[in-house]
Structure formats: C-alpha cells, structure tokens
Write a structure and sequence with these properties.
This protein is 27% helix and 27% strand. Strand 14 and strand 15 form a beta hairpin. It has a single domain, classed as Creatine Amidinohydrolase. It binds 2-amino-4-trifluoromethylsulfanyl-butyric acid and cobalt (II) ion.
Length: 248
C-alpha cells in the first residue's frame, strides 16, 4: 500500500530531512586522510543526541551503526570501523533519522583529498543521475520515468546501475511502498501523485552492475571490484513540482 502524505506531514518530514542533511554536512567536514570511519559514525550518533532525533538505521533489521560507510568498491551498507581513509578513496555515507514519527534518509559520496579522474567522473555522474530522477518526480508522471532518467544518465556515461538494491517510499516507516528501482524493468509501475514521498538513491558502478554481500551479512561490494558511488535524497511530489526534503 502506498501512503500519501498531507502537507502537514510533509512539513514534519522536511524537518527530519533538514536534520539528516545538517548532520551529514557536519560529518562530511571531518573527512580527510587518516580519519577512521568509526569516528565518523560516532560523530553522527552524537549529533543525533544533540538534535534529539533517533538514528534510523541503528538496530534496523539488526544493522549495528548509525551511519553506513562504503569505501571504493563497497556499494552500500558498509560497516564503520578502524579503517583509515586514504587520499584518493571515495566514501559513500548513508544516513537517516526519525523525528516526530517520520523518517528522513540521504546519502552522499565524497572524495578523500584528491581522487582519480574515473572516481571523480563516477561521483559527478551519480549525483547528476539523482538530480535527473528528482526532476522526474512530478504529479501525473510515472515512477518508471524516475527510474529511466536515472538509468539513462548513468549508462550514457558508460557506467551501470545496481539492480539488487532500490530506492523506496518513506514516511512513518523507513521503507514503504513503492520500490524505486534505478533501472526500468518489467516490474510494477504507478502514476505519481501529490503527497508521494520517495527516497531516490542511485547506486552506480564504474564496471558491471553485479554486486554481492560480504560475510558480515551487510556490506555490498561490486563483484568486479570496480568503484561504486551512491547519492540519495528524500523527495516529495507536490503541486509545485518535486521538493527535496533532505537539504540543509
Ligand atoms: N538508505 C538505505 C536504505 O534505504 C539505508 C538503509 S541501511 C539499514 O536502505 F541499515 F538501515 F538497512
Ligand atoms: Co534509503
């Protein structure tokens, strides 16, 4: 069942999304060579206390941390830990909170110091793919328009979109219907209506789209070892067009 949100609910989700964006921005400012991903996770969790919000991921289906930190060939759901970031790494940080009963969810991929040309292009294209998907979030459009916009942007640049993980509806639950694939398949489609709120989250690989989950049960990596980037925003379909809720 797809749950549409009232204008009042969207205002609460905007507040949740704003806190997500502000915390991600603060954590991002700490990224530099030598920092461990565990330090970033601890900071994100402390900032949740400061903002009086609950981290959305910690404990979700047993996920142990507030932040997901996925480095280089790691796609999503990487565990923060003692790994020290190195110049040239790319780090995807995925983060969500619950605030006044509603969730916000966002992700960014950041270069550590100077990164290689391919890594830079992969991050740019993935960010642009998200922007293209957001632009398709209009009343009367179709969910497959969002998927197609993301996929086109990634593939026309020679990259591939991950199929094993998808975006999602979001609201009182972190994951609601519908699923938001980053590719056009033969799955269900739907008309987009006012009040629909989606977490759009392209995961784009420099090589093939295949991913596998490591022995920890969570960390997804590219099968071919190629780099992967991930960007995500929480977006509402409104009478005035797409509204990004997860901005600072
Ligand atoms: N943005 C991701 C998602 O929507 C983050 C989930 S991590 C988890 O699936 F730990 F909560 F699963
Ligand atoms: Co999400």
């Amino acid at each position: 069942m797809v749950v549409l949100k009232s204008a009042r609910e969207i205002e609460i989700m905007r507040r949740a999304g704003r806190i997500v964006a502000r915390i991600l921005a603060e954590v991002r400012a700490r990224i530099k060579p030598g920092v461990t991903t565990a330090e970033l996770d601890r900071l994100a969790e402390k900032l949740c206390d400061d903002h009086r919000v609950e981290p959305a991921f910690k404990g979700y289906l047993g996920y142990p941390y507030a932040l997901c930190c996925s480095v280089n060939e790691e796609v999503v759901h990487g565990f923060p830990g003692p790994r020290r970031l190195q110049e040239g790494d790319i780090l995807s940080m995925d983060f969500g909170v619950r605030h006044q009963g509603y969730f916000g969810d966002a992700a960014v991929t950041i270069g550590v110091g100077r990164v290689g040309a391919e890594a830079g292009r992969l991050m740019d294209v993935t960010r642009e793919a998200l922007t293209a998907g957001i632009a398709a979030c209009v009343e009367g459009g179709r969910l497959s328009d969002v998927s197609a916009a993301v996929q086109r942007r990634a593939e026309e640049n020679g990259f591939s979109v991950v199929r094993q993980f998808v975006g999602h509806g979001i609201g009182r639950r972190l994951h609601e219907e519908p699923q938001v694939p980053n590719y056009v398949g033969d799955g269900r489609d739907m008309k987009l209506s006012q009040g629909l709120v989606l977490a759009i989250e392209p995961m784009v690989n420099a090589g093939g789209y295949a991913v596998k989950v490591k022995e920890d049960g969570w960390t997804a990596v590219t099968v071919d070892g190629s780099l992967s980037a991930h960007f995500e925003h929480t977006v509402a379909v409104t009478g005035d067009g797409p509204r990004i809720l997860s901005l600072p």
